[in-house]
Amino acid sequence: MAASATPAGKPRQPSISQLRGFAAVAEQLHFRDAAAAIGMSQPALSGAVAALEEALGVQLLERTTRKVLLSPAGERLAIRARRVLEAVGELLEEAEAARAPFTGVLRLGVIPTVAPYLLPTVLRLVHDRYPRLDFQVHEEQTASLLDGLAHGRLDLLLLAVPLGAPGVVEMPLFDEDFVLVTPRDHWLGGRDDIPREALKQLDLLLLDEGHCLRDQALDICREAGRTEGAPMTTSAAGLSTLVQLVAGGLGVTLLPRTALRVETARNDHLATGDFADPAPARRIALARRAGAARTEEFEAFAEALREALRPLPVRVAGRSA
């Protein structure tokens, strides 16, 4: 058979239909049986195999009046054809899975001052409502999370806002108040009307640089009129250590209310106090890339998470917040 080639001298691209027809004939070694197996008419099947031979420039079959045999080239290419068809099948399966919401991988980035307190609720929601979702969690500081979102390493972020990051859409979940955590015998312990101005001269313990909670606490202090020279210690990488320092009498700190039960419930050397209204607060949100392919899915996830968070001591945001 003469080779049929492109202007560059290379075989033409075969079609999936041609490969499917050839693979069926190679398996059945009979045109009628092969046509029945793939639901194609016998003339159409014969034409597809002939077109494949012409496109590749290779004789694949030896035809006789009674039987069909694979040529040496046909035996080799039949193996390749089956692999191509298997790969196409996998591609179609993956596309079907991608069309179905809440399937496949969802990579969530979470800041350290949220992860221990909200993840139990998040994971329970995913387990109960989205069992087919391959849910992966990455705990990192805000700057690293935003970088991961921008470069596609992460799909969603759970963190404090506002971010002011271009190309990032915030989906607010809730607002929560800050609580003052003090040593047990501190004069502000147990009060429910602490004025913000009390923060002006307190020995305040903060998280290390890079934590957004540190920046939020500093903003609250500045709003309260705290001067740059007021006593302030930075000596903790996490909230648990920060609380232990407070219990040891080294100062006071600010905790978001969702962290209060986990961090203070078992320590009788601590006291807490609530601020007078309006209390200082932070907003927690999910964040996604603007124009993300899974925007509708992420919006639905945010709404489901708002409902799941209602039992917590927070003020849940509305859908249009």
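[next item in queue]
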Amino acid sequence: MKWQGRRQSDNVEDRRGLSGGKVAVGGGVIGIIILLLNVFGGETGQTVGSALEQIQGGQTQTETAAPLSKEDEEMGNFVRVILADNEDIWSKIFEENGMTYKKPKLVLFRGSVNTACGGASSASGPFYCPGDQKVYMDLGFFEELKTKFGAKGGDFAIAYVIAHEIGHHIQTLLGTSAKMRQAQEGKSEAEANKLSVALELQADFYAGVWAHYNQQNLDTGDIDEALSAANAVGDDAIQSKMQGHVVPDSFTHGSSEQRMYWFKKGFKTGDIKQGTTFEEIQ
């Protein structure tokens, strides 16, 4: 992706040089399973890190400060550019629809982080917390995605995930998330899961809309990188790898095919009114 020398957002909080709080000792397979089953975290900001600590038992209270490497600095600059792209594109889309876009913050961290939605660890995967309207990301997640679960990697895979989480911010601003949670009340687990899938697929669609309006900065292969990441984090792909079989009623984020389809639809149309995942998932 063409990003060097472009505008960087001021709305990034880089906490990678100072990470503290309860950090789970170890990780291993349990941590990876929790990461995958909650990948992209949704917009609920669930404290998956707390669950990981309970399962593993041991934890330690620690606070570390470390300088960032040149690679870390460059990655932080890249994230700032991607966030700036989202700010510019969504501000324009909202304005065209008679609304005002409220810019979210994006927090980079390592290990663990405290949020308005509670504490979380890197095992949570990237997530959006509606309580403080911030996106939280431990960039180490992307190496796991590539080396352990077959995604192509590349900078646009990271851009896709950021855009997906910004999609959850869009849903918060538009009231979609609140309506979804209300609709889940009284539903069976399977029916409630369908609504969760619709929310996640719509966030993928919004990521595609962002990419549609950012095509002048894309390199050959960027969209393939995004689709590879979407494929790797489909519920069916994760369940097949982790438990050897697939249980569709337990899906909360959508299948690989669905995630790729809705990203591609957003990319092709660039029309936020066509993100009709709730109508089509029922």
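[queue empty]
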